[in-house]
Structure formats: C-alpha cells, structure tokens
Amino acid sequence: MQLQSLLVLLGATALMATPILDDAPLFEEDTVDGGKIQWFGAPTVTKLARASCSAIGDVNPVCDSDNAADSDTCWKFIGTLQADANANVYNDQGYRRACYQVDGRKCCTQWNKDIPNLQKKDLIPGMTRMAQMCNEGGISGKLNNVNIRGVCVNQCLNDNHSCK
Ligand SMILES: *[C@@H]1O[C@H](CO)[C@@H](O)[C@H](O)[C@H]1NC(C)=O
User: How far is the CA of 149 from the centre of ligand 1 (A)?
Assistant: First the structure.
C-alpha cells in the first residue's frame, strides 16, 4: 500500500474513534436558582496523553458571531457553578456538555475529552474568559487546547453548539 493511502486510512480510523458529542444522551438534570442544568455524555473511557497545552489564561478564545448564548444566562450559569464549586461533574462517565436554562434562555459549555475528577469549579475559568472576551451581542467562543486538570481539551461556551 502506498504511504499516502495508508495515512488516509489511519486518519479515517482516528476520526471514527472520536466520540460523537452531539449524540450524547442526557444523564442528569439539576434545578438551580430557578434554572435547570443538564449534563450530557456517554460512558466512555479515553486514554490520556501527557498534557502539552497552555493554561487557560494564556489562550485567547476564538470568538464566533454564530451560536451566541444570552450573556446574562451565561453569567448566571457561572454563578451556579461557583456556588457549588467542589461538586464532582462525574466526568469519568463522560459528561461533556452542560447547559443552563432559565427564563427560556440557555447557555452551554462543552469540552471534548474526559477529564478525571472534574469539578464544577474547573469549568469556570474558561467560561469566564470566553464570557469576557467573546461577548459581541451574545457569547460564543472556543478555547483550543487548554489545560484543565492536566488534560488538554477544547472548551466552548455558546447556545449548545458542538465543540470538537
Ligand atoms: C443540547 O444539545 C444536545 C445534543 O444535540 C441536545 O440533546 C440537548 O437537548 C440540547 N440542550 C439544550 C438545552 O438545548
């Protein structure tokens, strides 16, 4: 086999092994401050590579003019996580998306790999950075390859778009 087609084949295999975030089932729903947080994810086990990525404070988010979430709702979401900061996100079971809904509006954060021992507070720095830096008529942003508890992930904040 030619090297090139071998590489294409390897690439395709890697793609197939990537979990499809958008199909993740709802695992849990919490009611907080009159709003609702939903956690999505399928039980998966991911081999962890050694972290080679930057601290959240050193990465500028890529902002998106589409898929914007309501700014107040995102800040409320951050507040609810802060109020329950040490709670476990059961990320060992693959929760990778959380949405906060209140008054018919929603704000969601997503991350693209399992993060062992993830706690609610670990989601806050990235969410805060995107809420501050990607807020042109709503919040929609993505942090590429940031370190959360030693795992290199992409984290997003938006109206429930995917975060691959
Ligand atoms: C977010 O997206 C997931 C996957 O498409 C879907 O199952 C869920 O209902 C959505 N949640 C909200 C609050 O839009």
Answer: 25
Q: Are strands 35-41 and 95-102 parallel, antiparallel or unpaired?
A: antiparallel
CA 103 – ligand 1 centroid, Å: 16
Q: How far apart are CA 57 and CA 159, in angstroms?
A: 23
Tell me the per-residue pLDDT of 50-95, one tens digit each, with 9 for 90 and over. 568 999 999 999 999 899 999 999 999 999 999 999 998 876 565 6
pTM of the model: 0.73
The set of protein residues with a Cβ atom below 6 angstroms from ligand 1 is: 22, 38, 40, 99, 101, 106, 160
- Provide the 3-class DSSP secondary structure of residue 31: strand
